[in-house]
Design goal:
12 strands; single chain; 288 residues; globular; 4-stranded antiparallel β-sheet; 8 helices; D-amino Acid Aminotransferase, Chain A, domain 1
């Protein structure tokens, strides 16, 4: 339905989508909320580097340019279509994903290639949406419009050592400083994960995201946490706001992705005051 409405002007569409999520229209003239400022970010911020950074393959060059190439997940290959993959050239375990991400849904984990039905994998991948350069994003997230056509990536499977599985650390950064982070653990693949919000010093807060499964545990501060902060700060320094996702497996840090429009800016927090806390950190005067 949203694709069919691609002709609707962006300003009208983001206001309508915001109303559907929140039950009221955003204040785009004097925004105070993080969620409101995110809509202006989509509408007004036009840094061409964003289109490179939202592509799961092209972002690798950006990460290397920042001096953090050693933290990239090893890549086995990039392909125009899944049928181009040569199975015999791959290890026993790997991950198949596409370059647009698809909100984490366009991912297949292979733990034993000998037990793989490759035709089923191909059929599944070929059902994933394909983005072409110039396509209007349904959430009106400008950075995705100029991405190149979707490609297929095959990369190393990260094996967790923690009892909580592969923990995802999502740093919310503003003008080169990580302020808060989501810590996502105990993931049920394809369904959800337990979520907690920590501050920069890795203290668990009383803030939560509505609709997400709440983590009841206090996870230990990861090894090399200060290095993770350094990476997040450095990778975010070129942007007013970005979420930097990292993994840490017993001290080995891996880059996940850069996300400029977390849930398209339609996140609801409990308590609601956290929307204002993040909003106060998000400075928009440079592009509005």
């Amino acid at each position: 339905m949203l694709k069919a409405l691609s002709w609707v002007p962006d300003t009208i569409m983001v206001r309508f989508q915001y109303w559907l999520k929140f039950g009221f229209f955003p204040d785009l003239k004097s925004p105070k909320r993080y969620s409101e400022k995110m809509q202006l970010y989509k509408l007004k911020y036009r840094n061409p580097v964003l289109s490179q950074c939202v592509d799961k393959y092209d972002v690798r060059d950006y990460i290397k340019g920042k001096g953090f190439g050693d933290y990239l997940v090893p890549l086995y290959g990039v392909y125009d279509k899944i049928e181009d993959v040569v199975i015999k050239d791959l290890p026993k375990q790997f991950v198949v994903k596409n370059t647009t991400g698809g909100g984490g849904m366009n991912v297949i984990i292979v733990k034993d290639v000998s037990k793989l039905n490759w035709k089923e994998i191909c059929d599944q991948v070929n059902k994933w949406p394909i983005h072409h350069k110039g396509d209007v994003d349904v959430g009106r997230e400008w950075a995705y419009t100029n991405m190149p056509r979707t490609k297929i990536l095959v990369e190393k499977l990260l094996e967790p050592l923690d009892k909580h599985g592969l923990v995802d650390y999502k740093f919310f950064c503003f003008n080169g400083r990580a302020e808060y982070l989501y810590v996502m653990s105990d993931r049920v693949f394809g369904k959800d994960a337990a979520l907690a919000i920590y501050d920069r010093n890795f203290n668990k807060t009383d803030y939560y995201e509505k609709g997400e499964r709440r983590s009841t545990d206090i996870l230990p501060r990861p090894k090399n946490y200060l290095k993770m902060l350094e990476i997040a700060d450095k990778l975010s320094e070129d942007f007013p706001q970005v979420r930097v996702d990292l993994y840490n497996i017993d001290g080995s840090i891996y880059f996940g992705e850069l996300t400029f429009y977390d849930e398209s800016g339609y996140v609801r927090f409990d308590p609601d005051s956290f929307d204002y806390v993040l909003g106060d950190l998000f400075k928009i005067d440079t592009f509005v």
